[in-house]
Each structure stands twice: as structure tokens, then as C-alpha cells.
Amino acid sequence: MSSPDVHELTLSPITAHSFNGDRTKLAVCPNDTNVHIYNTSSNNWSIEATLKDHDKVVTGIDFAPNSNRIVTCSQDRNAYVWTQENGVWKPALVLLRINRAATYVRWSPNEDKFAVASGARAISVCYFDEDNDWWGSKHIKKPIRSTVLSVDWHPNNVLLASGSADMKARVFSAFIKGVDKKPAPTVWGDKLPFNTLCGEFQSNRGGWVHSVAFSPSGDVLAFAGHDSSINIAYPSADGNPTVVTVVTPSLPYLSLIWANDRQIVAAGHDCAPVLFETSDNQDWHLTGSLDENKKKTSISTSVLSRFKTMDSRGSSDNDTDLNTIHQNTILQVRPYSGSPDQVAQFSTAGVDGKIVIWDFDPSRVAKDLSSLRV
Amino acid sequence: MAFRRIDIDQYDEDIYTEEEILADAESGRSIDEINSVVDARATDVRNLLTRGNNSDALTKSLEDPPYGRNLESAKAKNIKTVVDVLNQFRANDIPTAIKGLNLDQQDVLMKYLYAALSKPEQFNSGMILNWHEKLTEVAGPGSIVRVMTDKRTVF
Fold first, then answer.
1. Where are the WD repeats (chain A) (predicted)?
2. Closest Cβ–Cβ partner in B25, B138, B146 for A228
3. I need a surface site. Which of A116, A214, A309, B18 has the fewest CB within 10 A?
4. Which tops the pLDDT comparison, A18 or A281?
5. A325-360, pLDDT tens digit by residue?
């Protein structure tokens, strides 16, 4: 497989994508009410099933790697859990009890709960209710003041980070009695009843928080905001967390993941994934772009020369391709292979309808980019 | 379709208002205090300019900008202080002046450029656009995005 591995699936934006555990299937929403399941075991990806029960745009998809269930959520304020029976995907409705669109969904690490973010200023933490035989939910509401745009689970299956349009990233307890056992104390606290606010962080430059991610250990939280910066928050017992802000000259990032505990990959409106690094966990910096695709840019792009070619050849230079693999905003970055603390490959999905799988070799990346640095 | 014209947010008791967001951005200092700080800085900057120390005058003028609500006069005065400094630079000196600023100062300068551009009757937009072009080359579109997201506005 060549790297990066580019798959042009649709012409419409890919609002959400998720691979299954062994990466032989891919669930994708092409900005409409359907979810397409692709068979990705051969190099030629083909649609093998379509999930059609939503009646507004699907905003979130998550494939549970071990239990092979898919959860989807949509602007129709519903979420479904899909299970495959005899080759057919069967939906089960989830009682979200929200009155605005659902925006984002993620399975917890143990796959016994999932969190649905929504415009109703709430996060529905959903769990299977054995007595009633359906998926019920509990709401995290306070102190969220606006739409929740993303969530991320802590590896301990209890803590949940959220990023919302009130410009704050928060860490909550999503402890469900009967589902979870009492978790071991972490840096985020030791007493964790449901809806405990364990941390609240803000970049003082404002901007919606588009994406949040716990570090592989779960001890650090990174978030990306619409202020074109990423922030890394280190909690502390005395209530004075350290927040490191990395201000960048590029357009805002919409999604970020930890590749390992010292490297973060972020992507967004600049159409290329970029790498942030730290050597000492105090000083973070933007290392550079991971998109090595260097299209031959013609040097003669001056207005004068453009008019000259128009004059001599009667045509203008119609090359409008961007110098990156993705030709439009990248909406989502997700780990593809490797372990959470050592991501070896990651996938990106963009407004250009492409899914791209990138190799990530931390040592090689650092070397290549250091030679590029001026 | 009449129902679509109803402002449903007015029925929301817990609505997140612009007022609340702006209150968050306030420094907590009194208006008089901020006014006197702005006046003192204007004097300092003028002294630096008369001594011909343009680059120090620029960094001084970008220090501690007045943020928050109900500060129209302080904000207007501070914009004038900054633009007076910008006026002193020759076009060729602008890139060097910008390189002497740190990232935060560059972001503040970008805010003041947009503030000045919003009052074309008062300030020379041609000169401001010249600064804007040079600043964007260094600070990138990210700096422009931050002018829009930052609730600590300068005008």
C-alpha cells in the first residue's frame, strides 16, 4: 500500500467516518441521511450495505472495534445502535431525550456506554438498560452553555472530555451506576459521581472548541479551537491547571489526535495534517505539515505572465488544484493502526469526499521535518 | 411558515447571551483606572516618538489594550495612539518593525489594524492596508481568524 493511501469515495463532504476493528469495513456518511458501509478488505473499496433510518444529515459514526456495533447520530435528534444479524444491519433506537441536533458520538473504551454530544447544551451518556431492553441515557448539562461539538473518552471508561461552542473544554465524570465499577483515582480527581466537573479550560483568544482529545495516559487534555491554536491542559491537584497554548499562523484546526504522548496530529481548514511536538512536556511547538505532496508549482504565477500565456495561447492556466492531498477542509482525523500510545497510521476525511490513510513513523517524521526547517 | 419567524430563543430561560460572553472578557478594573492607563500610555508613546524611537513606541502602544464593555472613549483613544505610531514608519521599515514583535503583540496589532480600517474617515486606510499586507506575511491567516474569535475586542 502506497502512503498516503487516497480513496476518493464521493463528491460530497464526508461528515463522519469510522473503520471497524480489523479495518475491513468503513462506515461513512456522505453529507446526507444515509450511512454507507464499505468493504475495504481489497484495494478497491465497494459499498456492501447502506443504513437508511435517519431522516436528517448524519453527524457522527462510531464503529465499536470489539463488539462490532455501530452507533450513529444525526441532526434528526436520534441515535441508533446497529448490530449485524445474519449479514443485515438492524437498528435499535436510543432514547436521547434532546430537543436539538446531535453533533458527535463516541463509544467508551469498554464499549458498554457511548456519549452523544448535542446542540441541546447537553451530552447524553447512553447505556444499555437491561430491564427495559433498550438504550437509555443520562444527561450531563451543567455548566455547558452552548452546543457541544465533540467528546472524547478517558481510557478509564468513566471520564469524558467535551469541547463546546461556549469556547470551553471540560472534563466530566460519566459514571453510570450498575455499568461502571468505582474507578481508581486519577489526576482528574478521586470522587466521581455522575456530572462532576473535573476540569474546565479555555483559550483566552476565544473561538469554539472543535475537538478534544485525552493523551494516551489520560492525564493530559488537548483541544483545538477556532482561534487557529491548539491548547494542552495539564491538571493539577491544587486547582491551578497549566494550559499551554500553541498559536499558529494557519487556518483553524477541526480535529486532533495524540499519536503518542509527545506528538499531536491536527488537521482542519488548511487541508493538510500538521504535527505538534514537545520534548519536555512544557514547551509545545508546531513542527510542520505531514503532507509531503509537493505539486510542481509553476514559478511564473505573476499576473503579467498569466496575461502573457492568455495572449499567446489564448488560454489561461486552469490549474486550481491545491498543493495538498485533500482538496478541501479536513473534518476528521482518527487513528487507523497501532496502539493508542503509538499510532502507526491515521485516517483523515474531508469536505472533498476523500478518505486518506497516512503512515506515521515518529522518528522519520521528526527527521524529515527537521531537514525542512529553516 | 409563520412559526419559523418566531424567535424561539426568547423562551429559553438559560440562553447564552453576547453580554455574558463579553462580561467574561473583562479585566475587572474600573473605567477610570483604564482611562488613566490609556492616557499615561499615550503620553509615553508620544515621548518615545519625539525621541525618534519608533520601534519601542510600537511595542509600548500595543501593551495592555483596553478590553471590555463601556470603554468607547478609552478604546478610541488607544486606537489613535497605535495609529499615530504606525504613521511614523516608512513603508520599507514595516517588515523589520513587525519582526521585532512577539506573537501576542502581532495579534494585538492585527486587531488594531482592523479597528483602524473600520474608521476610514479618521485613518488613512492605504497606510493601514500596507501594514496589514506585511503583517499577514509574517503572522499568517491565523492572526486574522483570531481577530474574529477573540472577544477581547479593541473597538
1. 51-82
2. B146
3. B18
4. A18
5. 999 999 999 999 999 999 999 999 999 999 999 999
> Domains in chain B: how many in total?
1
Is B154 part of a structural domain of the chain? no
Nearest chain B residue to A229 by CA: give it: B142
Residue B77 forms contact with A (CB below 8 Å): no
Alpha helices in chain A (DSSP H): 303-313, 362-372
| Closest chain A CA to residue B102 | A247
Optimal mutation site among A202, A203, A227, A329, interface B, most CBs of chain B within 10 A: A227
Note the pLDDT of residue A298: 47
Record the cell numbers describing residue B18, joined without a space: 453576547
What residues contact residue A156 under an 8 Å CB cut-off, 6+ apart? A109, A183, A184, A186, A218
pLDDT over 80 (residue B2): no
Q: Do A248 and B143 touch (CB under 8 A)?
A: no
Domain that holds residue B91: 2-149
For residue B107, the chain A residues in CB contact (below 8 A) are: 205, 247
Is residue B155 assigned to a domain? no
CATH superfamily of A5-297+328-372: YVTN repeat-like/Quinoprotein amine dehydrogenase (2.130.10.10)
Amino acid, single-letter form, for residue A322: L
User: What is the share, in percent, of chain A residues with pLDDT greater than 70?
Assistant: 91
- Tell me whether residues A249 and B139 touch, CB distance under 8 A: yes
What is the rounded distance in angstroms from the CA atom of residue B141 to the CA atom of residue B131? 14
* CB-CB under 8 Å, A204 with B152: yes
Question: Do A341 and A335 contact (CB within 8 A), yes or no?
Answer: no
In the A/B pair of chains, how many CB contacts fall below 8 A? 59
Q: Closest partner residue to B149 among A145, A226, A248, by Cβ? A: A226
Strands of A274-278's sheet in order across: A253-260, A263-268, A274-278, A284-289
Which chain A residues are Cβ-neighbours of B20 within 8 angstroms? 145
For the segment B103-113, the average pLDDT, to the nearest whole number, is: 96
